[in-house]
Amino acid sequence: MSSAFSPLNRRQGFAWLALVLLALAGAYWWWAIGRPVALPDAPSARIACVSYAPFRNAGETPLDAQAFISSERIDEDLRALSQRFDCVRTYSQGQGLSAVPQIAERYGMKVLLGIWLGSDKKANAQQVELGIATARKYPQVLRGVIVGNEVLLRGDLSAKQLDGYLREVRAAVSVPVTYADVWEFWLRHPELAGSVDYLTIHILPYWEDTPVSPERAVQHVATVYAQVQQAFPGRRVMIGETGWPSAGRPRQAASASVVNEARYLREFLLYAATVQMPYNVIEAFDQPWKRAQEGTAGGYWGIFDAQARPKFAMVGPVTEEPRWWAGWLAGVAGAWLFVLVGVWRRRWSGWRGWLALKLGGFASGCALAWQFRQMLFACRDTWEWTESLIACALALLSALWLARWIAARMAGGVSLSLPHWLRLGWLFALAFYELLLVFDGRYRDFPLGLFLLPCAGFALIGWLSDRGEVAMPLLEERFLAAWLPLLAAIVLVQEGGLTPVAWLWLGLNLLLALPVLFDWRSARLQSQQA
């Protein structure tokens, strides 16, 4: 048999193909998210009403009882919002928000006044007292008073307790009174309809128990709205919250992105204009504090970001990542870094080793840039940034070590030794995160960029190595590797098989696990002997 068609050369040919495809995939992904996407235009840049919470600066949260927002900041926000919105919805009367109606009147805006209810009776009494006083003082500004927000969903109050608060406020004010919750809870508690002037329902296709794709989201809203109207004939129904997140983990067919947020909002506004439906969009500004409760997606429902910059226009194409070229720059930087490190203790010669390093480095740079972009959205504080950067640094160092082995093998040189702890460490890290995704994955992102480097590297080494070049797997490694495909398959089932990212996640698990579970070297040796 010609040496050109030897088993080693065939294996190297497959490895070259894998390296080229990985580099091309990284380049294509960054190019793709930088392409403008054509979307339907909104009927108008103005929106009827929007949820307003001013807690958008670092460290601010309404969960801090001592937090206070000055009237000057509220004035600045509402002055800007009045250019795009006719009304704002608030959720609480404390922490300075009781000043909203007075300031909104100054800019010709209306207010849906929120009274926050929870499990604390004393705090509820204070909220109700403030809300009644404000409603009596500014009745001409208010479109309604919303007594409680998703109280039944959270389980803070029973329907009977909530009914008492509704009747108390309704008897004390002259403006319409309502309660806001996810639409299913109105169907479960129809008795509350007698205590409100109109029903306020939340329809959030992304957060549904069975998430809805952005392409079907507005039709889902229309179906639900009609269902609630049918359940409460003759009653006025308002959509109190609807929207789409611009960042965060995918949920089955529902993918969070700037393009999908723009798509949903524009299509929803087109629909709302045809049915003359009262509605409120969530929300004006991104709320970083929500990431602690709802994962990455929770912080990115704003039409404006946390710095009050619009995320997209209401007409024309929308681009997911205008700075897409930064991913290519990261790939080029990765290629040169791998080449520089390859000079150290080099055990091979020829162009093949350098090319393998450049391809592996470019793919690694693109992957780590993707991971860093995810970190920009997900990391909330110094600790999360620190642990994320350390993880990325370890992935890069591992990739450099593995790439030097692969380059030497591809160039026909002497391969480096690989310690057991390196592969064992990544097997443990992946298995640990896999368990978190299986048992507590609702708000967790998929760190594909982080794990791509070691998973692809070890898979190529497993494919290229001969007997004696790499130590046989330890029992602990086999134990962890046996669990990875099973856990990843469970995650895929939880996503209904509809999430492309979950399929990629399964692929990474297989890349790391299969070379450990199945000794390809023994199979090749038996084939050669036969």
Which properties best describe this structure?
7-stranded parallel β-sheet; alpha/beta; elongated; 54% helix; 6% strand; 530 residues; 7 strands
List the helices and strands and how they pair.
Elements lengths: L6 H26 L17 E2 L19 H11 L5 E3 L10 H7 L3 E6 L5 H17 L4 E8 L1 H4 L4 H14 L4 E6 H6 L10 E4 L14 H15 L5 E5 L16 H18 L15 H8 L26 H18 L8 H28 L3 H29 L9 H21 L7 H17 L10 H20 L5 H18 L2 H10 L1
Parallel strand pairs: 1-2, 2-3, 3-4, 4-5, 5-6, 6-7
Helix pairs in contact: 1-11, 1-12, 8-9, 11-12, 12-13, 12-15, 13-15, 14-16, 15-17, 16-17
- Specify the number of helices: 18
Helix content: 40-55%
The order of strands across the largest sheet is 1-2-3-4-5-6-7
Overall mean pLDDT = 93
What series of H and E elements makes up the topology? HEHEHEHEHHEHEHEHHHHHHHHHH
**Alpha-beta content class:** alpha/beta
Tell me the distance between the termini: 14 Å
Number of strands: 7
Shape: elongated
Low-confidence stretches: 1-5, 522-530
Please outline the major beta sheet.
7 strands, parallel
- Cα gyration radius (Å): 28 Å
In percent terms, what proportion of residues is strand? 5-15%
Question: Please, could you describe this protein's structure?
Answer:
The chain has 530 residues and is of the alpha/beta class. Helices cover 54% and strands 6% of the residues. The chain is built from 18 helices and seven strands.
Short description:
The protein has 530 residues and is of the alpha/beta class. It has helices at residues 7-32, 71-81, 100-106, 121-137, 151-154, 159-172, 183-188, 217-231, 258-275, 291-298, 325-342, 351-378, 382-410, 420-440, 448-464, 475-494, 500-517, 520-529; strands at 50-51, 87-89, 110-115, 142-149, 177-182, 199-202, 237-241.
